[in-house]
Amino acid sequence: MARTAGSHGPKTMEAIRKAALTLIYRKGYEAITLRQLADAVGIQPGSLYNHVRNKQDILFDLVHDHMTTLLAEVEQAVPAGAAPLAQLEAFIAFHVGYHITRREQVFIANSELRSLEAPNHSVIVGLRKQYEGVLIDILRRGGADGSLRVDEPTIAAYAILSMLTGICSWYQPSGRKSAEQVATLHRDLILRGIVA
Questions:
Q1: Beta partners for 53?
Q2: Residue 63: in which H helix or E strand, if any?
Q3: Is the separation of the CB atoms in 110 and 167 below 8 Å?
Q4: What is the torsional sign of CA 77, 171, 174, 99?
Q5: CB 91 within 8 A of CB 77
Q6: Could you give the C-alpha distances from 75 to 31, 33, 190, in angstroms and in order?
Q7: Contact residues for 143 (Cβ-Cβ < 8 A; gap 6+)
């Protein structure tokens, strides 16, 4: 690959992130080397160190960016002050849409969590708990006001998140259902189970 123009600036860092995302998604974190990453970007392996300290930093950057984006966007998607049922519907639509359009990021954040070293792992787990907390809070308030049948909000939240996130492993944009239709089907499945 030709050398990346402006290889000391933000353009190269973005190229490194994109190449790392693709390589980790396809091969797994443990299987890739910094040399492969440099080749994919079109820079010398030593030049990577102008942008990152090591492979762990690259993984943490990708997963951290995913989680902070997820948290910022769910805050915008779920209407503050709305009834729990309306918030649950908004959460489901957001989660499905986000996860379908960012399959690589979601896959890496879930499958490579184990590859993060202790301090980085703790940061990401904390961000995940914040995201899970959004849904747990919705379910807890819906149970309290009687609009949702939820005895165990935390367990219900984990079950819902597992079902919704699983879409990444099978959904194909070229399939017979659109992303919106898949979101609606999932919403209906969930609501039939917990709406009072």
A1: none
A2: helix 55-77
A3: no
A4: positive
A5: yes
A6: 35, 36, 21
A7: 149, 150, 151, 153
| pLDDT tens-place string over residues 123-182 | 999 999 999 999 999 999 999 999 999 999 999 999 999 999 988 778 888 888 888 888
Length, in residues, of the chain: 196
Location of structure tokens 């489901």 = 92
The residue among 155, 119, 153, 160 whose CA lies nearest residue 139 is: 153
Beta carbons within 8 Å of 188's beta carbon, 6+ residues apart: none
- As to burial, measured by CB atoms within 10 angstroms (0-12 exposed, 13-18 middle, 19+ buried), residue 65 is middle
- Residue 142's nearest CA partner among 74, 195, 80, 77 is 195
* Pair of tokens at residue 123: 């940061």
Closest CA to 154 of 146, 162, 127: 162
Tokens of 53: 């300290």
Radius of gyration over every alpha carbon of the chain, rounded to an integer in angstroms: 19
